[in-house]
């Protein structure tokens, strides 16, 4: 509630008398979510020209989907013991020797990669056993993700710590997006995993960029509007900023994390950044659009939709009832 109020209060400063500052301050101050993300973005124009409109992306489709519990695709006894978290059985198998640690299951995963996806507390001990037996922390899946990517995605700080201790590279990028483990931790609001990555190598986290030039802070902003990530994303942003991440980092389109948050309606996340640096809201991307412009566009669309709905409702109750000729 307070976050939306503060953001739209800044809009009121820019509002003209025709817009009505009082109405502007009242918009969305109750904490309700602004309308969907298919918005028209008003671009700056020369004096006397009609405003140009550009459709904004409907969603953050370039981010990976939230992880789900994987179905068992064990193809070896080793994979089966890892998936069932049978630590004693695994220890016995490794003690006997003659185990192919590089074998892959139906999903193309080695036993170490399977262990990295686990969220249970046994996962860290399983990774210790596998690496002590000679498993490589440099194994990757079909998408080019290493064990550290999968551990960050799962949000297991214990496995993240063990993998870092065993030499997993926090700068490794995946094949599809060029994303590091820190990007994955940011996208899924994995606070503890992010804290572990920042503590291990803050510079690697600060300097991380995907193929579109987006930092982990961008990825956090892109997920912050999701209900399941809203609170965690605030804490992830705190971890990143404490590690020295720049809130004014720009991607290839010139957009900052504040642009992503404003576009998708992550008002609380945006408010948290704006408290640290109020100038963020006026930063312009390569199209000349600022986060404040995006907020203003969302506000105007909200007013238009609300007025249209009210007018139609009023019209319906004023219409005479159909009469019968009988």
UniProtKB/TrEMBL annotation:
SUPFAM superfamilies xref list: Ankyrin repeat (SSF48403)
Keyword entries, A-Z: ANK repeat, Repeat
Repeat keyword on record: yes
ANK repeats: from-to residues: 107-142, 143-175, 212-252
Pfam families assigned to the protein according to its UniProt record, in alphabetical order: Ank, Ank_2
Stretches the record annotates as Disordered: 29-76
Superkingdom, natural source: Eukaryota
UniProt keyword Ubl conjugation present: no
PANTHER family linked to this entry: ANK_REP_REGION DOMAIN-CONTAINING PROTEIN
Name assigned to this protein: Ankyrin repeat domain-containing protein
Organism: Pelagomonas calceolata
């Amino acid at each position: 509630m307070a976050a939306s109020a503060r953001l739209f209060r800044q809009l009121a400063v820019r509002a003209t008398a025709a817009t009505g500052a009082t109405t502007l301050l009242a918009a969305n101050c109750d904490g309700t979510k602004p309308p969907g993300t298919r918005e028209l973005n008003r671009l700056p124009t020369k004096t006397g020209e009609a405003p140009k409109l550009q459709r904004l992306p409907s969603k953050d489709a370039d981010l990976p989907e939230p992880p789900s519990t994987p179905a068992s695709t064990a193809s070896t006894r080793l994979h089966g013991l890892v998936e069932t978290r049978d630590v004693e059985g695994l220890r016995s198998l490794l003690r006997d020797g003659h185990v192919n640690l590089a074998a892959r299951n139906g999903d193309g995963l080695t036993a170490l990669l399977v262990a990295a996806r686990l969220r249970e507390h046994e996962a860290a001990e399983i990774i210790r056993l596998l690496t002590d037996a000679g498993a490589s922390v440099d194994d990757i899946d079909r998408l080019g993700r290493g064990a550290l990517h999968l551990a960050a995605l799962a949000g297991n700080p214990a496995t993240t710590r063990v993998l870092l201790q065993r030499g997993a590279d926090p700068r490794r990028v995946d094949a599809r997006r060029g994303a590091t483990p820190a990007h994955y931790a940011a996208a899924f609001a994995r606070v503890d995993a992010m804290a572990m990555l920042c503590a291990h190598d803050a510079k690697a986290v600060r300097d991380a960029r995907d193929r579109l030039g987006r930092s982990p802070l961008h990825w956090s902003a892109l997920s912050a509007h999701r209900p399941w990530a809203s609170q965690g994303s605030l804490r992830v942003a705190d971890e990143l900023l404490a590690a020295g991440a720049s809130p004014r980092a720009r991607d290839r389109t010139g957009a900052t994390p504040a642009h992503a948050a404003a576009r998708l309606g992550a008002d609380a996340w945006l408010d948290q950044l704006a408290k640290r640096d109020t100038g963020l809201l006026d930063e312009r991307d390569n199209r000349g659009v600022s986060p404040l412009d995006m907020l203003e566009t969302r506000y105007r669309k909200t007013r238009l939709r609300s007025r249209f709905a009210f007018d139609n409702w009023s019209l319906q109750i004023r219409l005479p009832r159909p009469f019968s000729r009988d």
